[in-house]
Write a structure and sequence with these properties.
The chain has 447 residues and is an alpha/beta fold. The protein has 4 domains: 4-134, Response regulator (Rossmann fold), CATH 3.40.50.2300; 146-310, Rossmann fold (3-Layer(aba) Sandwich), CATH 3.40.50.300; 313-346 and 358-380, Helicase, Ruva Protein, domain 3 (Orthogonal Bundle); 390-447, Arc Repressor Mutant, subunit A, CATH 1.10.10. The chain is 49% helix and 14% strand. It is built from 19 helices and 16 strands. It has helices at 12-24, 35-45, 61-70, 86-94, 107-137, 146-159, 175-185, 203-211, 228-231, 247-259, 285-290, 296-302, 319-334, 343-351, 357-371, 384-387, 400-418, 423-430, 434-443, and strands at residues 4-8, 28-32, 49-53, 77-82, 99-103, 165-168, 193-197, 212-213, 225-226, 236-240, 261-262, 271-272, 276-281, 305-308, 340-341, 376-377. Strands 2-1-3-4-5 form a 5-stranded parallel sheet, sandwiched between helices. Helix 4 links the parallel strand 4 and strand 5 (99-103). Helix 2 (35-45) packs across helix 3 (61-70), helix 10 (247-259) packs across helix 12 (296-302) and helix 17 crosses helix 18 (423-430).
Protein backbone atom coordinates (compact mmCIF):
# COMPACT_ATOMS: atom_id res chain seq x y z
CA UNK A 1 0.00 0.00 0.00
CA UNK A 2 1.44 3.37 -1.06
CA UNK A 3 2.40 5.93 1.57
CA UNK A 4 -0.06 8.83 1.68
CA UNK A 5 1.26 12.40 1.38
CA UNK A 6 -0.74 15.60 1.74
CA UNK A 7 0.69 18.55 -0.22
CA UNK A 8 -0.41 22.05 0.81
CA UNK A 9 0.29 25.16 -1.31
CA UNK A 10 -1.78 28.13 -2.48
CA UNK A 11 -0.17 28.08 -5.94
CA UNK A 12 -1.73 25.49 -8.33
CA UNK A 13 1.49 25.30 -10.38
CA UNK A 14 3.47 24.16 -7.33
CA UNK A 15 0.77 21.64 -6.42
CA UNK A 16 0.80 20.21 -9.96
CA UNK A 17 4.61 19.92 -9.93
CA UNK A 18 4.76 18.26 -6.52
CA UNK A 19 1.90 15.91 -7.32
CA UNK A 20 3.53 14.79 -10.57
CA UNK A 21 6.93 14.15 -8.94
CA UNK A 22 5.52 12.29 -5.94
CA UNK A 23 3.03 10.26 -7.96
CA UNK A 24 5.88 9.12 -10.21
CA UNK A 25 7.68 7.95 -7.06
CA UNK A 26 4.70 5.77 -6.16
CA UNK A 27 3.10 7.83 -3.40
CA UNK A 28 -0.65 8.41 -2.94
CA UNK A 29 -1.28 12.18 -3.07
CA UNK A 30 -3.99 14.50 -1.75
CA UNK A 31 -3.95 18.31 -2.27
CA UNK A 32 -5.01 21.31 -0.22
CA UNK A 33 -4.95 24.98 -1.26
CA UNK A 34 -4.70 26.57 2.19
CA UNK A 35 -4.27 25.86 5.88
CA UNK A 36 -7.95 25.46 6.73
CA UNK A 37 -8.46 22.92 3.94
CA UNK A 38 -5.26 21.13 4.99
CA UNK A 39 -6.55 20.60 8.54
CA UNK A 40 -9.78 19.10 7.15
CA UNK A 41 -7.87 16.84 4.73
CA UNK A 42 -5.68 15.58 7.57
CA UNK A 43 -8.80 14.22 9.27
CA UNK A 44 -10.26 12.60 6.15
CA UNK A 45 -7.11 11.51 4.27
CA UNK A 46 -4.97 10.45 7.26
CA UNK A 47 -1.61 11.11 5.55
CA UNK A 48 1.75 9.68 6.67
CA UNK A 49 3.51 12.95 5.69
CA UNK A 50 2.60 16.58 4.98
CA UNK A 51 4.49 18.88 2.61
CA UNK A 52 3.43 22.34 3.78
CA UNK A 53 4.13 25.68 2.12
CA UNK A 54 5.29 28.35 4.56
CA UNK A 55 3.79 31.45 2.88
CA UNK A 56 0.03 31.12 2.37
CA UNK A 57 -2.90 33.52 2.78
CA UNK A 58 -4.82 33.04 6.00
CA UNK A 59 -2.93 30.51 8.13
CA UNK A 60 0.75 30.25 7.24
CA UNK A 61 2.68 27.02 7.48
CA UNK A 62 3.86 27.48 11.07
CA UNK A 63 0.34 28.29 12.23
CA UNK A 64 -0.95 25.11 10.57
CA UNK A 65 1.86 23.15 12.22
CA UNK A 66 1.06 24.60 15.64
CA UNK A 67 -2.64 23.76 15.22
CA UNK A 68 -1.78 20.17 14.26
CA UNK A 69 0.35 19.74 17.37
CA UNK A 70 -2.31 21.42 19.49
CA UNK A 71 -4.76 18.77 18.29
CA UNK A 72 -2.31 16.05 19.34
CA UNK A 73 -1.39 15.14 15.76
CA UNK A 74 2.28 14.25 15.35
CA UNK A 75 2.33 13.56 11.59
CA UNK A 76 5.79 14.54 10.24
CA UNK A 77 5.70 17.90 8.43
CA UNK A 78 8.18 19.15 5.83
CA UNK A 79 8.06 22.92 5.26
CA UNK A 80 8.37 24.30 1.71
CA UNK A 81 9.90 27.76 1.60
CA UNK A 82 11.57 30.24 -0.74
CA UNK A 83 15.33 30.75 -0.42
CA UNK A 84 14.81 34.19 1.08
CA UNK A 85 12.84 32.82 4.02
CA UNK A 86 14.99 29.86 5.05
CA UNK A 87 15.41 31.36 8.54
CA UNK A 88 11.62 31.04 8.93
CA UNK A 89 11.88 27.38 7.96
CA UNK A 90 14.50 26.89 10.65
CA UNK A 91 12.08 28.47 13.11
CA UNK A 92 9.39 26.07 11.89
CA UNK A 93 11.72 23.14 12.67
CA UNK A 94 11.98 24.45 16.22
CA UNK A 95 8.20 24.24 16.33
CA UNK A 96 8.34 20.57 15.36
CA UNK A 97 8.76 20.40 11.57
CA UNK A 98 10.89 17.45 10.41
CA UNK A 99 12.81 19.35 7.69
CA UNK A 100 12.37 21.95 4.95
CA UNK A 101 12.63 22.06 1.16
CA UNK A 102 13.71 25.34 -0.54
CA UNK A 103 11.87 26.56 -3.65
CA UNK A 104 12.49 26.02 -6.47
CA UNK A 105 13.21 22.47 -5.29
CA UNK A 106 15.51 19.87 -6.80
CA UNK A 107 13.46 16.68 -7.45
CA UNK A 108 16.20 14.35 -6.16
CA UNK A 109 16.68 16.40 -2.98
CA UNK A 110 12.92 16.54 -2.40
CA UNK A 111 12.60 12.77 -2.96
CA UNK A 112 15.39 12.07 -0.44
CA UNK A 113 13.84 14.24 2.28
CA UNK A 114 10.43 12.63 1.74
CA UNK A 115 11.97 9.14 1.90
CA UNK A 116 13.88 9.91 5.10
CA UNK A 117 10.83 11.48 6.77
CA UNK A 118 8.67 8.44 5.98
CA UNK A 119 11.39 6.04 7.15
CA UNK A 120 11.62 7.85 10.46
CA UNK A 121 7.85 7.73 10.85
CA UNK A 122 7.84 3.96 10.15
CA UNK A 123 10.61 3.45 12.69
CA UNK A 124 8.74 5.50 15.27
CA UNK A 125 5.54 3.51 14.73
CA UNK A 126 7.52 0.27 14.90
CA UNK A 127 8.93 1.30 18.27
CA UNK A 128 5.44 2.16 19.51
CA UNK A 129 4.13 -1.24 18.41
CA UNK A 130 7.11 -2.99 19.99
CA UNK A 131 6.59 -1.04 23.20
CA UNK A 132 2.99 -2.18 23.21
CA UNK A 133 4.05 -5.79 22.72
CA UNK A 134 6.60 -5.49 25.50
CA UNK A 135 3.90 -4.04 27.71
CA UNK A 136 1.77 -7.06 26.91
CA UNK A 137 4.62 -9.39 27.85
CA UNK A 138 4.84 -7.78 31.28
CA UNK A 139 1.35 -9.11 31.95
CA UNK A 140 3.09 -12.47 32.39
CA UNK A 141 4.71 -11.11 35.52
CA UNK A 142 1.32 -10.49 37.10
CA UNK A 143 -0.36 -13.09 39.24
CA UNK A 144 -3.20 -13.65 41.68
CA UNK A 145 -1.31 -16.02 43.97
CA UNK A 146 -0.01 -14.70 47.28
CA UNK A 147 3.56 -15.83 46.56
CA UNK A 148 3.68 -14.12 43.17
CA UNK A 149 2.04 -10.96 44.52
CA UNK A 150 4.71 -10.79 47.24
CA UNK A 151 7.50 -11.21 44.66
CA UNK A 152 6.02 -8.44 42.47
CA UNK A 153 5.65 -6.10 45.43
CA UNK A 154 9.30 -6.64 46.43
CA UNK A 155 10.46 -6.11 42.84
CA UNK A 156 8.58 -2.83 42.44
CA UNK A 157 10.03 -1.52 45.70
CA UNK A 158 13.54 -2.48 44.56
CA UNK A 159 13.17 -1.19 41.00
CA UNK A 160 14.18 2.43 41.53
CA UNK A 161 17.08 1.66 43.83
CA UNK A 162 20.61 0.85 42.66
CA UNK A 163 20.67 -2.30 44.78
CA UNK A 164 21.59 -5.60 43.16
CA UNK A 165 18.66 -8.02 42.89
CA UNK A 166 19.06 -11.80 43.04
CA UNK A 167 16.19 -13.74 41.44
CA UNK A 168 15.83 -17.29 42.73
CA UNK A 169 13.67 -19.98 41.24
CA UNK A 170 13.47 -23.04 39.04
CA UNK A 171 14.27 -22.99 35.32
CA UNK A 172 11.38 -21.69 33.27
CA UNK A 173 9.81 -19.75 36.14
CA UNK A 174 10.24 -16.46 34.24
CA UNK A 175 13.36 -14.97 35.83
CA UNK A 176 14.50 -13.11 32.70
CA UNK A 177 11.03 -11.70 32.09
CA UNK A 178 10.90 -10.65 35.74
CA UNK A 179 14.30 -8.96 35.38
CA UNK A 180 13.04 -7.07 32.32
CA UNK A 181 10.00 -5.97 34.32
CA UNK A 182 12.22 -4.59 37.10
CA UNK A 183 14.22 -2.70 34.46
CA UNK A 184 10.99 -1.38 32.93
CA UNK A 185 9.70 -0.25 36.32
CA UNK A 186 12.95 1.62 37.05
CA UNK A 187 14.30 5.01 35.98
CA UNK A 188 16.71 3.11 33.69
CA UNK A 189 13.89 1.97 31.41
CA UNK A 190 15.09 4.17 28.51
CA UNK A 191 18.59 2.65 28.61
CA UNK A 192 19.78 -0.80 27.49
CA UNK A 193 18.74 -4.06 29.11
CA UNK A 194 21.31 -6.72 28.27
CA UNK A 195 20.93 -10.38 29.28
CA UNK A 196 23.91 -12.73 29.53
CA UNK A 197 23.49 -16.48 30.02
CA UNK A 198 26.42 -17.69 32.10
CA UNK A 199 25.77 -21.39 31.34
CA UNK A 200 27.74 -23.20 28.66
CA UNK A 201 30.39 -20.52 28.12
CA UNK A 202 34.02 -21.13 29.00
CA UNK A 203 35.67 -18.80 31.49
CA UNK A 204 37.50 -17.02 28.64
CA UNK A 205 34.42 -16.55 26.46
CA UNK A 206 32.25 -15.35 29.34
CA UNK A 207 34.94 -12.91 30.50
CA UNK A 208 35.15 -11.47 26.98
CA UNK A 209 31.34 -11.26 26.77
CA UNK A 210 31.13 -9.42 30.08
CA UNK A 211 34.13 -7.14 29.93
CA UNK A 212 35.25 -7.11 26.27
CA UNK A 213 38.81 -7.47 25.05
CA UNK A 214 41.61 -5.44 23.52
CA UNK A 215 42.98 -6.14 20.08
CA UNK A 216 45.56 -8.93 20.30
CA UNK A 217 44.49 -9.98 23.81
CA UNK A 218 44.36 -13.61 22.66
CA UNK A 219 44.45 -15.66 19.48
CA UNK A 220 41.63 -14.51 17.21
CA UNK A 221 41.18 -11.12 18.92
CA UNK A 222 41.77 -9.15 15.73
CA UNK A 223 40.02 -6.02 16.92
CA UNK A 224 38.83 -4.29 20.08
CA UNK A 225 35.51 -5.56 21.38
CA UNK A 226 33.37 -3.79 23.97
CA UNK A 227 31.79 -6.07 26.55
CA UNK A 228 28.17 -6.19 27.62
CA UNK A 229 28.96 -4.28 30.83
CA UNK A 230 30.29 -1.39 28.77
CA UNK A 231 27.47 -1.49 26.22
CA UNK A 232 24.84 -1.41 28.99
CA UNK A 233 26.10 1.87 30.49
CA UNK A 234 23.16 3.64 32.12
CA UNK A 235 21.01 0.51 31.98
CA UNK A 236 20.70 -2.99 33.41
CA UNK A 237 22.73 -6.18 33.00
CA UNK A 238 20.96 -9.47 33.72
CA UNK A 239 23.31 -12.33 34.69
CA UNK A 240 21.27 -15.47 34.10
CA UNK A 241 22.45 -18.62 35.90
CA UNK A 242 25.08 -16.64 37.81
CA UNK A 243 25.70 -19.69 40.00
CA UNK A 244 27.60 -21.28 37.10
CA UNK A 245 30.29 -18.57 36.87
CA UNK A 246 33.80 -19.99 37.26
CA UNK A 247 35.79 -19.25 40.41
CA UNK A 248 38.35 -17.16 38.48
CA UNK A 249 35.68 -14.96 36.97
CA UNK A 250 33.87 -14.66 40.30
CA UNK A 251 36.86 -12.66 41.57
CA UNK A 252 36.70 -10.18 38.69
CA UNK A 253 32.93 -9.85 39.02
CA UNK A 254 33.28 -9.17 42.75
CA UNK A 255 35.74 -6.38 42.08
CA UNK A 256 33.39 -4.90 39.51
CA UNK A 257 30.47 -4.94 41.95
CA UNK A 258 32.63 -3.19 44.54
CA UNK A 259 34.18 -0.54 42.29
CA UNK A 260 31.82 -0.43 39.28
CA UNK A 261 34.89 -0.52 37.05
CA UNK A 262 36.85 -3.16 35.15
CA UNK A 263 39.55 -3.67 32.54
CA UNK A 264 38.96 -5.34 29.22
CA UNK A 265 40.73 -8.66 28.68
CA UNK A 266 44.30 -7.75 27.76
CA UNK A 267 43.80 -4.14 28.88
CA UNK A 268 45.13 -2.06 31.75
CA UNK A 269 42.90 1.03 31.60
CA UNK A 270 40.05 1.04 34.16
CA UNK A 271 36.61 1.56 32.60
CA UNK A 272 33.88 2.95 34.85
CA UNK A 273 30.23 2.29 34.05
CA UNK A 274 26.88 3.04 35.68
CA UNK A 275 24.79 -0.12 35.47
CA UNK A 276 22.35 -2.03 37.60
CA UNK A 277 22.99 -5.76 38.09
CA UNK A 278 20.19 -8.30 38.32
CA UNK A 279 21.39 -11.88 38.78
CA UNK A 280 19.43 -15.11 38.67
CA UNK A 281 20.07 -18.73 39.50
CA UNK A 282 18.21 -21.98 40.03
CA UNK A 283 21.07 -23.32 42.17
CA UNK A 284 21.43 -23.37 45.93
CA UNK A 285 24.06 -20.64 46.26
CA UNK A 286 24.05 -20.90 50.04
CA UNK A 287 25.03 -24.56 49.72
CA UNK A 288 27.60 -23.75 47.04
CA UNK A 289 29.21 -21.23 49.41
CA UNK A 290 29.43 -23.83 52.18
CA UNK A 291 31.00 -26.31 49.77
CA UNK A 292 33.54 -23.73 48.58
CA UNK A 293 32.23 -23.61 45.00
CA UNK A 294 31.02 -20.00 45.21
CA UNK A 295 32.69 -17.02 46.86
CA UNK A 296 30.90 -15.97 50.03
CA UNK A 297 31.73 -12.27 49.53
CA UNK A 298 30.35 -12.37 45.97
CA UNK A 299 27.24 -14.15 47.21
CA UNK A 300 26.57 -11.35 49.70
CA UNK A 301 27.17 -8.72 46.98
CA UNK A 302 24.59 -10.39 44.72
CA UNK A 303 22.14 -11.26 47.47
CA UNK A 304 21.28 -7.68 48.47
CA UNK A 305 17.60 -8.03 47.53
CA UNK A 306 16.71 -11.71 47.04
CA UNK A 307 13.37 -12.40 45.36
CA UNK A 308 12.10 -15.95 45.00
CA UNK A 309 9.83 -16.71 42.06
CA UNK A 310 7.46 -19.55 42.92
CA UNK A 311 7.26 -22.52 40.53
CA UNK A 312 4.06 -22.78 38.56
CA UNK A 313 2.86 -25.80 40.57
CA UNK A 314 2.79 -23.54 43.66
CA UNK A 315 0.66 -20.85 42.01
CA UNK A 316 -1.83 -22.84 40.02
CA UNK A 317 -4.48 -20.16 40.43
CA UNK A 318 -2.44 -18.17 37.89
CA UNK A 319 -2.56 -20.92 35.24
CA UNK A 320 -5.93 -20.00 33.61
CA UNK A 321 -4.90 -16.37 33.05
CA UNK A 322 -1.44 -17.35 31.79
CA UNK A 323 -2.88 -19.98 29.45
CA UNK A 324 -5.41 -17.48 28.09
CA UNK A 325 -2.61 -14.94 27.51
CA UNK A 326 -0.54 -17.49 25.58
CA UNK A 327 -3.57 -18.68 23.60
CA UNK A 328 -4.32 -15.15 22.36
CA UNK A 329 -0.67 -14.36 21.71
CA UNK A 330 0.02 -17.51 19.67
CA UNK A 331 -3.36 -17.26 17.92
CA UNK A 332 -2.30 -13.87 16.62
CA UNK A 333 1.07 -15.20 15.48
CA UNK A 334 -0.50 -18.23 13.79
CA UNK A 335 -3.29 -16.10 12.29
CA UNK A 336 -5.94 -18.27 13.94
CA UNK A 337 -8.88 -17.27 16.08
CA UNK A 338 -8.95 -19.17 19.37
CA UNK A 339 -11.23 -17.60 21.96
CA UNK A 340 -11.59 -20.31 24.62
CA UNK A 341 -10.44 -23.62 26.03
CA UNK A 342 -12.60 -26.63 26.68
CA UNK A 343 -13.39 -27.16 30.38
CA UNK A 344 -11.51 -30.47 30.43
CA UNK A 345 -8.44 -28.68 29.00
CA UNK A 346 -8.37 -26.27 31.94
CA UNK A 347 -8.80 -29.19 34.32
CA UNK A 348 -5.79 -31.00 32.83
CA UNK A 349 -3.67 -27.84 32.95
CA UNK A 350 -4.52 -27.38 36.63
CA UNK A 351 -3.62 -30.92 37.75
CA UNK A 352 -0.32 -31.17 35.84
CA UNK A 353 2.82 -30.36 37.88
CA UNK A 354 4.63 -28.25 35.23
CA UNK A 355 8.30 -29.21 35.80
CA UNK A 356 9.22 -26.75 33.05
CA UNK A 357 7.12 -24.01 34.67
CA UNK A 358 5.82 -21.03 32.63
CA UNK A 359 8.04 -21.85 29.66
CA UNK A 360 6.58 -25.34 29.44
CA UNK A 361 3.04 -23.94 29.67
CA UNK A 362 3.82 -21.54 26.81
CA UNK A 363 5.12 -24.42 24.67
CA UNK A 364 2.05 -26.55 25.41
CA UNK A 365 -0.36 -23.76 24.45
CA UNK A 366 1.61 -22.90 21.31
CA UNK A 367 1.45 -26.56 20.24
CA UNK A 368 -2.31 -26.62 20.87
CA UNK A 369 -2.85 -23.48 18.81
CA UNK A 370 -0.77 -24.74 15.89
CA UNK A 371 -2.34 -28.21 15.81
CA UNK A 372 -5.87 -27.38 16.96
CA UNK A 373 -8.97 -26.18 15.15
CA UNK A 374 -10.28 -22.79 16.25
CA UNK A 375 -12.26 -21.37 17.97
CA UNK A 376 -11.66 -23.64 21.01
CA UNK A 377 -8.63 -25.59 22.26
CA UNK A 378 -9.71 -29.19 22.77
CA UNK A 379 -8.28 -32.03 24.86
CA UNK A 380 -6.77 -33.77 21.85
CA UNK A 381 -4.69 -30.65 21.16
CA UNK A 382 -2.68 -31.19 24.36
CA UNK A 383 0.45 -33.37 24.41
CA UNK A 384 0.11 -36.88 25.89
CA UNK A 385 2.07 -36.05 29.06
CA UNK A 386 -0.55 -33.43 29.97
CA UNK A 387 -3.54 -35.59 29.12
CA UNK A 388 -1.99 -38.47 31.07
CA UNK A 389 -1.37 -40.90 28.21
CA UNK A 390 2.42 -40.71 28.11
CA UNK A 391 3.81 -44.27 27.73
CA UNK A 392 5.33 -44.14 31.22
CA UNK A 393 1.86 -43.86 32.78
CA UNK A 394 0.70 -47.09 31.15
CA UNK A 395 3.93 -49.12 31.26
CA UNK A 396 2.14 -52.21 32.56
CA UNK A 397 1.31 -53.13 28.97
CA UNK A 398 4.89 -52.64 27.79
CA UNK A 399 7.75 -55.09 27.71
CA UNK A 400 10.66 -54.59 30.14
CA UNK A 401 12.84 -52.80 27.57
CA UNK A 402 9.93 -50.69 26.29
CA UNK A 403 9.09 -49.60 29.83
CA UNK A 404 12.73 -48.68 30.51
CA UNK A 405 12.87 -46.62 27.30
CA UNK A 406 9.58 -44.92 28.18
CA UNK A 407 10.92 -44.02 31.62
CA UNK A 408 14.18 -42.68 30.19
CA UNK A 409 12.27 -40.68 27.61
CA UNK A 410 10.07 -39.10 30.30
CA UNK A 411 13.07 -38.22 32.47
CA UNK A 412 14.91 -36.59 29.56
CA UNK A 413 11.85 -34.63 28.43
CA UNK A 414 11.37 -33.27 31.96
CA UNK A 415 15.07 -32.40 32.29
CA UNK A 416 15.02 -30.57 28.94
CA UNK A 417 11.88 -28.68 29.95
CA UNK A 418 13.45 -27.62 33.26
CA UNK A 419 16.65 -26.57 31.43
CA UNK A 420 14.62 -24.53 28.90
CA UNK A 421 15.92 -26.73 26.07
CA UNK A 422 19.60 -26.29 27.04
CA UNK A 423 21.01 -29.77 26.45
CA UNK A 424 24.25 -29.13 28.32
CA UNK A 425 22.32 -28.02 31.41
CA UNK A 426 19.90 -30.98 31.09
CA UNK A 427 22.85 -33.40 30.86
CA UNK A 428 24.37 -31.85 33.98
CA UNK A 429 21.09 -32.17 35.88
CA UNK A 430 20.77 -35.84 34.86
CA UNK A 431 24.40 -36.60 35.69
CA UNK A 432 25.16 -37.56 32.07
CA UNK A 433 27.84 -36.52 29.61
CA UNK A 434 26.41 -34.21 26.98
CA UNK A 435 27.37 -36.53 24.12
CA UNK A 436 25.62 -39.44 25.84
CA UNK A 437 22.48 -37.34 26.29
CA UNK A 438 22.53 -36.39 22.60
CA UNK A 439 22.72 -40.07 21.65
CA UNK A 440 19.77 -40.85 23.94
CA UNK A 441 17.72 -37.99 22.50
CA UNK A 442 18.34 -39.33 18.99
CA UNK A 443 17.73 -43.00 19.84
CA UNK A 444 14.55 -42.29 21.81
CA UNK A 445 13.15 -40.01 19.11
CA UNK A 446 12.82 -36.94 21.34
CA UNK A 447 12.13 -33.80 19.33
Amino acid sequence: MADKILIVDDEPFNLDLLEQELTDLGYAIERANDGEEALKKVESFQPELILLDYMMPGMNGVEVLKELRKRGNDIPVVIITAYGTIERAVQAMKEGAYDFIPKPFEPDHMALIVQKALERERLKRGIEVLSGEVGERYRLVAGQSAKMSHAIDSAKKAADSKATVLLLGESGSGKELFARAIHNWSERRGSPFIAINCVGLSKELLESELFGHERGAFTGAHQLKKGKMELAHGGTVFLDEAGDISSELQTKLLRFLQEREFERVGGTKPIHVDIRIIAATNRDLDGAVKEGRFREDLYHRLNVIPITLPPLRERKEDIPALADFFMRRFSKEAKKHFVAMAKEVEEKLLVYDWPGNVRELANVIERAVVLGQSPKIALQDLPPRIVGTEPITSHESLSYHEAIDASRRELIIRALAQAQGNRAAAAKALGLHRTHLLKLIKSLGIG
